[in-house]
Design brief:
The protein is α/β, with parallel strands linked by helices. Helices cover 19% and strands 29% of the residues. The protein is built from 6 helices and 15 strands. A hairpin with a 3-residue loop joins strand 1 and strand 2. The protein has 2 domains: 91 residues, Elongation Factor Tu (Ef-tu), domain 3; 150 residues, Rossmann fold, CATH 3.40.50.80. The longest helix is centred in the C-terminal third of the chain and has 14 residues. The strands form 3 sheets. It has a 7-stranded mixed beta sheet with strand order 10-9-8-7-11-12-15, with helices on both faces. A 6-stranded antiparallel beta sheet has the order 4-3-6-1-2-5, covered by helices on one side. A two-stranded antiparallel ribbon has the order 13-14. Helix 4 runs parallel beside helix 5. Bound molecules: flavin-adenine dinucleotide and FE2/S2 (inorganic) cluster (FES). The site of flavin-adenine dinucleotide has 22 residues, from strand 4, strand 5 and helix 1.
Length: 278
């Protein structure tokens, strides 16, 4: 089982919200004040919860780091009670952050060009990774897709540091269609793909990469309760017929290990044109 070792031991901290930037109705970037610093690396995540939420929702929510350091941040899309409360949080509100958790993206190979494929909030761990790649002097190629232009909240930041191709299902920005509609034409034998987004999108990206014999790493967004291997609530079917645990063996993992056809969110047949926002 592939496993990139976490870079730092997890810690539970309580940190005040420094600021919340709303990007349209559904997306918010929450930045926390952590003077002692966070060692979180691209691909890792934190279990996040408002310290004053009371009983509901009880469990913290897994969120990828968008940045680390003394002002770690996350990008959230409001979909339920937890993200709704995060999207209404005000500066000064205390949050508990358990992290960094999970493994990092595999470092880019020297002889390959990283191709980052993001759907919806899957952009968070990939933008953090793109910044790391750019800081090392390379320019990644990125494909960023959503249902409409409203689902591409970090488009400008991504375009500053990568060669970026946008897709929207309604054609309101970039190419009309899904990320997979442009992926095939952008891949070559020297590509290596990193992808995060809805399961269906990652399944389709992985299928294209397998067909083209291009290495592909996916970042799993399986719902989680504990985030570090205690509850066994994040099983993901593997191609050898067994299961891995997304929080311990992932979230970043070689796509060839994951059996998307047995996952809850997978399409009955993995179509190579699937993709979009989550
Ligand atoms: C490692 C990891 C990193 C993540 N990073 C981010 C991130 O950077 N930004 C972000 O916005 N979200 C991210 N997520 C997803 C996020 O954790 C969920 O959206 C969040 O837990 C939803 O909480 P909620 O209380 O708002 O919704 P809930 O009330 O818990 O759920 C609302 C609905 O969404 C469904 N749902 C909940 N979680 C998921 C999921 N992971 N996949 C598919 N359906 C789900 C539920 O079944 C329910 O139908 C990540 C998940 C993981 C595992
Ligand atoms: S979330 Fe508890 S074991 Fe993975």
């Amino acid at each position: 089982m592939e496993h990139t070792a976490p870079m730092a031991a997890r810690r539970m901290i309580t940190a005040p919200l420094l600021h919340r930037e709303s990007i349209g109705a559904s997306y918010h970037v929450l930045t926390f004040d952590v003077p002692e610093g966070s060692d979180a690396q691209p691909g890792q995540f934190a279990m996040v919860r408002g310290a004053e939420w009371g009983d509901a929702p009880l469990l913290p929510r897994p969120m990828s780091y968008l940045t680390g350091g003394t002002t770690p941040s996350i990008l959230i899309k409001v979909i339920g009670e937890g993200t709704l409360r995060m999207g209404r949080a005000e500066p000064g509100e205390p949050f508990t952050l358990l992290g960094p958790l999970g493994n990092t993206w595999r470092p880019p190979s020297r002889n390959r060009r990283p191709v980052l494929v993001a759907g919806g909030v899957g952009i968070a761990p990939l933008l953090y990774f793109a910044k790391q790649i750019a800081a090392d002097g390379a320019t990644p190629l990125s494909i960023y897709g959503g249902r409409s232009s409203r689902d591409l909240p970090l488009e400008d930041e991504l375009s500053e540091i990568s060669e970026t191709h946008l897709t929207t299902e309604d054609g309101s920005r970039g190419t009309r269609g899904r990320v997979t509609d442009v992926l095939e034409s952008l891949l070559d034998a020297g590509s290596e793909v990193y992808t995060c987004g809805p399961d269906r999108m990652m399944a389709a990206v992985a299928a294209i990469c397998a067909k083209r014999d291009v290495p592909c790493q996916v970042s799993l967004e399986t719902p989680m309760a504990c985030g570090y291997g205690v509850c066994l609530g994040c099983p993901v079917p593997t191609t050898d017929g067994g299961y891995l645990y997304a929080c311990m063996n992932g979230p970043c993992i070689d796509a060839r290990l994951v059996d998307f056809s047995r996952s809850d969110h997978a399409p009955r047949k993995v179509a190579t044109t699937a993709g979009g926002a989550k």
